[in-house]
Design a protein that fits this description.
2 copies of one chain form a homodimer. The first copy, chain A, is mainly α. Chain A contains 7 helices and 3 strands, in the order H-H-E-H-H-E-E-H-H-H. Helix content of chain A is 64%, strand content 12%. Chain A has a 3-stranded antiparallel beta sheet. The interface between A and B is large, with 50 and 50 residues. Chain B binds a DNA duplex through helix 4.
Chain lengths: 118, 118
DNA sequence: TTATTAATTAAGCATATGCTAATATGCCCT
DNA sequence: AGGGCATATTAGCATATGCTTAATTAATAA
């Protein structure tokens, strides 16, 4: 889930989401993205670091230029898996053990009226 | 895309992502979420406002309690559509007209050496 | 080697975010 | 009406984020 969070966080920002759409068309180098998105080359680098950390893009240096391409495979798989996870029940999501426990406790011992009255 | 951004932003935060997983199991009221997630009731309310704004959850008042449920349909559709959009090319994403224009300009007038040399 | 260009990293700043405590609102029951 | 919960909203604060400019690092070419 830490992984999913990273992915969603990466996608949940206007500039980066645009980058993903742009890279879905074709690979682009930093200077091109800079020109298209109208932000500093430094900003591009920083966003790319985040997208890379989420494994959403690949980086390839070609001479002095660094070209980025979209990892469409990973993106697609992760989102599909997320949807599947949602259908499989909480036990499938290991990183929520604590919360699952508390949920189960509530199921057995309804904390308050909210469950009793209905 | 504004929409997608809102959705990804909503999902890209640990507490809210947990909420989504929890609600995928069953609907829950604020006081239950408070207990499960161990944050203040105010925090729950605020997060729910964001999830609601992204249309990811539905809210139903039952007496003094408000129950939230996951809008799995919407979530699933939006993510699928996003993946489809990525395959359809930029023209499909209307909100990127400006960037598309600049991309096309670059395609015709390679800005610098990066395209000429390779 | 030095100069030039591209990209990354660091520093700094303004704004956004996530949370809590305090207050207000809404719903139910006397 | 008035008291008692559950939830929402507000205010305030500490931290995170997105950006810029400045300083480094990397690669190429003279």
């Amino acid at each position: 889930m830490k992984n999913l969070e990273k992915i969603f966080k990466a996608l949940g920002q206007a500039t980066r989401l645009k980058m993903v759409f742009l890279l879905s068309e074709q690979e682009l180098c930093v200077c091109e993205l800079e020109h298209i998105l109208q932000v500093s080359q430094s900003a591009i680098s920083q966003h790319m670091r985040i997208l890379k950390a989420a494994d959403l893009v690949n980086e390839e240096r070609r001479g002095q230029w660094v070209f980025y391409s979209l990892n469409k495979q990973v993106l697609s798989e992760q989102l599909q898996d997320f949807l599947k996870l949602l259908d499989m029940g909480l036990k499938a999501e290991g990183r929520m053990a604590e919360e699952l426990e508390r949920l189960q406790y509530l199921q057995e011992n309804p904390i308050v009226e909210c469950r009793i009255q209905n």
